[in-house]
Amino acid sequence: MAMSVGQDGDEDEVMSNINTTPLVDVMLVLLIIFLITIPVVTHTVPLQLPKETIQPLQTTPKSIEIAVNKDGDFFWNETHVDAQTLLTKLKTVSVQTPQPEVHVRGDQFTRYEFIGRVITACERAGIAKVSFITEPPARGG
């Protein structure tokens, strides 16, 4: 530790050195506090979470694919339909045994309102299983 002691008669001279010792002391104390508290914060209630593997969804011939573009237009297996026709078609397929699955493909920029209309139509028609089709994220990029 360095200490400045007055020189021979030069006591009126201003000391131009910055004493960084208190700064280092404070930083070391903060570092020790963070090292002690971080392991305590990261621990949570010990749980055994279920393991789940996701299988890619295979479209079967009995699956119904409804696409919604960014403008809110509905497509029944690549054929443009309006909302009333969509509901009518869903009602006709909902009585089939086994009931086909409905796969909803929505454009990335589609407003949620349009996807919600498809889900509401499926609910009103009595469709039991509705799935959303997405693309997996790009790998390695």
From TrEMBL:
Molecular function via GO: transmembrane transporter activity
GO cellular component: plasma membrane
Protein's cellular compartments: Cell inner membrane; Cell membrane
Domain of life: Bacteria
Pfam family, one: ExbD
Function: Involved in the TonB-dependent energy-dependent transport of various receptor-bound substrates.
Quaternary structure note: The accessory proteins ExbB and ExbD seem to form a complex with TonB.
Protein name: Biopolymer transporter ExbD
